[in-house]
Structure formats: structure tokens, C-alpha cells
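Quick one, probably user error.
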């Protein structure tokens, strides 16, 4: 291999590594919350939009860990309140809808959905 080819390969490798590092640093952060306070034998409905009349996407029982995007109605950001005590976090979202990233068909295709804050708790 000549020096020019080796130099070009090294430069391309460095550029690829830099691009990969940039992509990884922009990865979305999720807040892990769990389904809680749902009546025994019932499930929490995940809705397409933040409304009790919106299309149901899926349902999860108590204890299911949800990937929350951080976005809630009322201007609440789950990632911004994460350092507060769990009881305070739960109180802040109690009457809000919060967005989750989930796989309703369990086929690897994730979509955004909404859950009512009364039925979720910080993990």
C-alpha cells in the first residue's frame, strides 16, 4: 500500500469516527417512569393524542416501565424536574398528559403516545 492510500484511509476513518461521535451526542434522552395507581386488574391506556377520547394505541399494567420523552402538557418537562423528590414530580404531572415512546404492536416499531399523569410515577 502506498503512503497516499494509507493517509486517505486514515483520514476517512477519522472523519467517520467524528461523524459517529456527533450523531451519538445528539441521541434523545428518555425519562424512565412506571405505570402506577391503576386499579387492580385494569391497565393504563396510551392514547394517540393527549385526550381521553383519542384513539387508544396500547394498554399497560401497573409496574410497566415506560420511556417518557419528557414532554407533558402544561409546559412540564420530565427531564427538567428529574432532580426533585419523586412525590413532587408525581404531583406536578398529576393532571397533565405526558408523552411516551413505545412499541404498541411489540414489533420493533416505536411511536409516540400520551398517558395521563395520574397513572405514572418516577422510577
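Nope, works fine. Designed sequence:
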Amino acid at each position: 500500500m502506498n503512503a497516499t492510500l494509507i493517509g486517505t484511509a486514515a483520514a476517512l476513518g477519522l472523519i467517520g469516527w467524528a461523524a459517529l461521535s456527533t450523531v451519538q451526542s445528539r441521541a434523545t434522552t428518555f425519562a424512565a417512569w412506571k405505570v402506577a395507581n391503576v386499579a387492580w386488574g385494569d391497565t393504563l391506556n396510551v392514547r394517540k393524542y393527549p385526550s381521553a377520547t383519542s384513539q387508544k394505541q396500547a394498554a399497560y399494567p401497573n409496574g410497566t416501565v415506560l420511556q417518557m420523552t419528557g414532554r407533558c402538557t402544561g409546559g412540564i418537562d420530565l427531564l427538567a424536574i428529574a432532580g426533585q423528590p419523586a412525590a413532587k414530580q408525581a404531583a406536578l404531572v398529576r393532571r397533565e398528559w405526558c408523552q411516551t415512546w413505545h412499541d404498541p404492536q411489540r414489533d420493533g416499531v416505536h411511536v409516540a403516545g400520551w398517558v395521563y399523569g395520574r397513572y405514572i410515577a418516577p422510577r
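The two ends are 55 Å apart (CA to CA).
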